[in-house]
Write a structure and sequence with these properties.
Blueprint (H helix, E strand, L loop, with lengths): L5 E9 L2 E8 L3 E9 L3 H16 L8 E7 L4 E7 L4 E2 L10 H19 L3 E2 L8 E3 L5 E3 L6 E2 L22 H4 L8 H17 L6 H4 L5 H7 L13 H10 L11 H11 L1
Antiparallel strand pairs: 1-2, 2-3, 3-5, 4-5, 6-8, 7-10, 8-9
């Protein structure tokens, strides 16, 4: 299948792979990922992500068309569905009032509940990993560091920090407290994004929290804002943040059904 793809442009490069926009004669535009296998751990993460996406048939995730591993050359090729739309990062001004933000969060919960129900935690929710499609629905990307709770953990216990994007990570990720990671870890990231959409700034940004700590340090110390001089606090989002941004997972919403019930009552 990869030989039939015509590369149109390079989309991104980083870590262990290059990502291209390509055209396939049968399925149209696709995303082509070509990368290196640097360790058993990276290989296992790739396999888990591919197998998960291959088994999903949901509008909330891109379809997986092709996957190949060359263990001799230590390289891999992946072809997946190209999702039309813009990243949430590029669409943030479209979700700047309470109702639109909570409706987006509700749709994200609907999509994430598919993997949460399989005991899988995304662990890398951020605006860059969410595509807003032309119909307004979100598509969730990049399950490369997803935590499969029913499988052996791949992160070394001695690592000071677990796999994550630090400024959207929960305290348990930042301290590699992997034994308490579950769906509530993703709730924390949803809380950050909800406030960021509402305020237009990262809620843990020291420039707005008004301290000398970094965003990560503020996350660890639970220092965040719910308003700025130009945006007054909203009680619904404030209550949402209060439950999702708790430092300890056991103080957050207990599960995604309770989380969804909260959202439904406040839309």
């Amino acid at each position: 299948m990869i030989k039939e793809c015509k590369i149109l442009e390079e989309i991104a490069e980083g870590g262990q792979k290059k990502v291209f926009l390509a055209e396939h004669p049968d399925v149209g535009k696709v995303v082509l990922k070509i990368g290196e296998i640097r360790s058993f751990t990276s290989l296992e993460r790739i396999k888990r992500e591919v197998e998960l996406l291959t088994g999903l048939d949901s509008e909330y995730y891109p379809k997986q068309y092709y996957f190949n591993i060359d263990v001799i050359a230590m390289k891999f090729d992946i072809i997946e569905q190209y999702i039309e739309g813009k990243t949430l990062r590029d669409s943030m001004t479209e979700f700047n009032d309470t109702e639109s933000i909570l409706r987006l969060i509700s749709e994200l919960i609907n999509g994430l509940s598919i993997i949460w129900g399989r005991n899988i935690v995304h662990r890398d929710l951020k605006p860059e990993n969410i595509i807003i499609k032309p119909n307004g629905l979100p598509c969730i990307l990049d399950l490369g560091i997803a935590r499969f709770l029913d499988l052996e953990a791949l992160t070394k216990t001695i690592s000071p920090m677990g796999p994550c994007t630090p400024i959207y990570a929960s305290p348990e990720q930042l301290t590699n407290n992997k034994n308490i990671i579950d769906q509530r870890t993703d709730f924390f990231s949803l809380g950050i994004m909800a406030l960021e959409l509402f305020l237009g700034v990262h809620p843990f940004d020291p420039n707005y929290v008004r301290n000398k700590f970094s965003i990560v340090e503020n996350i660890m110390q639970n220092n965040y804002i719910t308003e700025i001089p130009t945006v007054k606090s909203d009680e619904k989002l404030k209550a949402f943040a209060k439950k999702t941004l708790q430092t300890q997972p056991f103080n957050r919403f207990r599960n995604f059904k309770i989380l969804n019930e909260f959202i439904a009552k406040n839309i």
